[in-house]
Amino acid sequence: MLWPKAKSALASQRSNWRTVANLGEPVFAEKIGPTDMIEWMPFLQAYSILENTNRVAEISAHLAHQPFVEAQACRILEKQSGVTAGMQKQIQVLLCASKKG
C-alpha cells in the first residue's frame, strides 16, 4: 500500500472527514507512515473532528519526534472548526502542552 497523500488531501480540502478517516485505517493496519510528517495532518484533522481520541494519540506520538510539525499541528487544530471542546482538551494535552510549558 502506498501513502494516500493525494486522496486524503483532496478529501480534507472538501471537508470530507469520514473519507479521510477511512483512507487512514489501512495506514494504521499496515503500519505505514509518510515521508514528511506534515502529511499526517489531514488524518489528524479528521480524527479530531470525528472524536477518535485513540487515533489522535497515535498520530501525536509520531509527531512528538518533530517539534516543529507538532507545533504546526497544535496551531492548526486549535483553530479547526468542528472540533468539540472535549477533543480540544485532548489536543492540548497530546500536542500543545509541551509548547506552553
Overview of this protein structure:
This protein is an all-alpha fold and about 100 residues long. The protein has one domain. The protein has 6 helices and no strands. The protein has helices at about 5-15, 15-30, 40-50, 55-65, 65-80, 85-100. The N and C termini lie far apart (about 40 Å). The mean pLDDT is about 90.
Question: Which features does this protein show?
Answer:
mainly alpha; 6 helices
Overview in brief:
The chain is mainly alpha-helical and 101 residues long. Helix content is 70%, strand content 0%.
List the helices and strands and how they pair.
Layout lengths: L4 H9 L3 H13 L11 H9 L3 H11 L3 H13 L5 H16 L1
Number of strands: 0
Number of helices, where a helix is a run of at least 4 consecutive DSSP H or I residues: 6
Shape: globular
Helix content: over 70%
Number of domains: 1
Kindly state the mean pLDDT as a whole number? 91
Rg over CA atoms, rounded to whole Å, is 12 Å
Instruction: Characterize the main sheet.
Output: none
CA-CA gap between termini = 39 Å
List the helices and strands in order.
HHHHHH
> Would you identify the regions where 5 or more consecutive residues have pLDDT less than 50?
none
Going by helix content, strand content and strand pairing, the class is mainly alpha
- What fraction strand? under 5%
